[in-house]
Amino acid sequence: MNIRHKANKIRLFSFSTPQMRAFHLSWFAFHVCFFGWFGIAPLMAVVRDDLDLSKTQIGNTIIASVAITVVVRLVIGLLCDRLGPRKTYTWLLCLGSLPVMLIGLADSFETFLLARLAIGAIGASFVITQYHSTVMFAPNVVGTANATTAGWGNLGGGTTQILMPLVFSGVLMLGVSETLGWRLAMIVPGIVLFLTGLAYYHFTQDAPDGNFSDLRARGELPPATQEHGALQSFTAAARDIRVWALFAVYAACFGVELTINNIAAIYFFDTFSLDLATAGLIAGLFGLMNLFARTLGGWFSDLFARNGGLKGRVRWLFIALLCEGIALTGFAQMQTLAVAISIMLVFSLFVQMAEGATFGVVPFINKNAMGAVAGIVGAGGNAGAVAAGFLFRSESLSYQQGLFYLGLTVIAASLFALTVKFSSETEAAETAAYRQADGARRVEQEAATG
């Protein structure tokens, strides 16, 4: 896909260019999606009592919330290639708002499970966010752009843990019972999702030079109706062993983050005998690291690429994932609340840096199948969360034991990063593109400063 006029600099406080409007609206849309996707997680102690759920049943709902996303992420990348990220995001947000608002109708484990399964489709928003920022930004900053939009989106996992108990408390102040309160509270993120979908349609465009439909009409992109085009794109990505290596890597970082988002509040609630609001606040700290940690991972990826090229990006990915696994095994053995929080923050730092590092590599795997590659790798995160979910549904395995085994798995998965290789031709071409984009940025910067 040949997209021209990509931005070679992130102008954080600008909304005037299509690149920066896509940047800000894509991270905000992903952020809002977390309120729908995991809004129920910090309220699970109340839902557990209301619906009389066992630990195994709670574990099954955790698996359901991320399982469907595996499939939807595979499809959503192809839709981005075909329809463009603007229309794809709009439809996902507006349709995804419906099960979020309707989860309040659940009156049994089965109906609650189905609602969480339907809501899980919203998690595919990540692929669109990464796709849109990849289309808009040049090689010298694409790692940072991808990491920041995803990181500030993932930040929703933290703010959800903090704000949803407050929304719940606000609803209770109206005089309703807890049984009705959690149901009414979930209407709020549903409304926000729908409004964000409308905003995305009106204020963004697919690429720097216009929407995909306009670019195809001008002959600047191949027609979307090319026979078997989407299938060929997916097949090319699926046949590349590097894509599956990154699938496993992303399972070990984003999959772990999704798992922690689901269990953190109830873990601290039960393990340290905290109240719901305090447990949610502490759990929220894990997600709040996304404010800078994932950006830092992407920034280091771009920095390693300056001297080490694509090999440098891969080396940094390995380092970040290895440190994540070591920190997680340490967190799993903590018995004191203050120490547990401290280690959790270190663990969170490396989880999110590893995520940023992963999508610092993804844009360079196959530019002709960009959506398919992003979709498959993104699905890896949810596949990892599904697999990890089985560790936390067993009545015989404690949360701490599950976290320790998960940490060992992450350490093993870090080795997959080292299997990602690039041809010498690709290395040379991307090094030249990086230097060209970086040189253009320096010229613009010098001109601006006189």
Shape: globular
CATH fold-level label: Growth Hormone, Chain: A
Largest sheet: none
Task: Please give the alpha-carbon distance between the first and last residues.
Answer: 36 Å
* DSSP strand count: 0
Assign the CATH architecture.
Up-down Bundle
Secondary-structure element sequence? HHHHHHHHHHHHHHHHHH
Summary keywords:
450 residues; mainly alpha; Growth Hormone, Chain: A; 0% strand; MFS_trans_sf; nitrite transmembrane transporter activity
Structure overview:
Belongs to the major facilitator superfamily. Nitrate/nitrite porter (TC 2.A.1.8) family. Keywords: Cell membrane, Membrane, Nitrate assimilation, Transmembrane, Transmembrane helix, Transport. Residues 22-425 form the Major facilitator superfamily (MFS) profile domain. The structure is a single chain. The protein is mostly helical and 450 residues long. It has a single domain, classed as Growth Hormone, Chain: A (Up-down Bundle). 76% of the residues lie in helices and 0% in strands. It contains 18 helices and no strands. The protein has helices at 18-37, 44-51, 55-83, 85-102, 109-119, 125-136, 142-172, 178-185, 187-203, 212-217, 229-238, 241-271, 276-288, 293-331, 337-361, 370-389, 399-417, 424-449. Helix 1 (18-37) runs parallel beside helix 4 (85-102) and helix 14 (293-331) packs across helix 15. The radius of gyration is 21 Å and the shape is globular.
